[in-house]
Design a protein that fits this description.
By secondary structure, the chain is an all-alpha fold. It contains 10 helices and no strands. Helix 6 packs parallel to helix 8. It starts with a helix and ends with a helix.
Length: 180
């Protein structure tokens, strides 16, 4: 075969491959979520952000993609970018105490103390025994020298946890083990 024929064949093959790739079905959101998670795990955060945004372009209310995108933003210290993502999650799922708490943390990192405290309190209204929100609220109040408020939150938390019979039972079991 002549050199000219080989070059022509090579060009036609590459064109065929390009056409085949352009006609490939688009990746599913699950495939893209896997790709985004893998990129995030490998430290390719910018690419992971692109992948999660691509999913959200197709399905703007995909909570899993929103959570993943917000997590990457937080990991990268992009707290201002994370705020609207967490806000969207909390609008879609107002009872999601975990998302409310993370939104409060992000607001705190951005310096929005009042917003942060309000969100922690909202999370605790929904689920008073949610320890991450309680501890973060107390830390935030202490950090901003609101010691009296922090103390009252500690007392409220203790009351909840002491009233919980399962905790009292566990505490009694631990005490019995210690006394053996």
């Amino acid at each position: 075969m002549s050199l000219r024929k080989l070059k022509r064949l090579k060009r036609s093959k590459s064109k065929e491959i390009r056409l085949r790739n352009n006609n490939a079905p688009p990746a599913s959101d699950n495939d893209l979520m896997g790709l985004g998670a893998a990129l995030r795990a490998q430290g390719c955060h910018a690419s992971a952000i692109d992948v999660f945004n691509r999913i959200l372009t197709r399905t703007p209310d995909d909570i899993q993609a929103l959570r993943a995108l917000a997590a990457v933003y937080v990991e990268q210290g992009l707290f201002k970018e994370a705020v609207p993502v967490f806000e969207k999650i909390t609008r879609k799922r107002p009872e999601d105490v975990d998302a409310l708490t993370k939104l409060a943390i992000v607001h705190q990192k951005c310096g929005n103390l009042a917003q942060s405290v309000a969100l922690y309190k909202k999370a605790l209204e929904l689920r008073p025994e949610f320890l991450p929100a309680r501890l973060s609220l107390v830390e935030t109040l202490e950090r901003y020298n609101k010691v009296d408020e922090a103390y009252s939150e500690v007392l409220a938390g203790l009351k909840i946890f002491l009233d919980d019979t399962s905790i009292a039972i566990r505490a009694a079991a631990c005490e019995r083990r210690l006394n053996k």
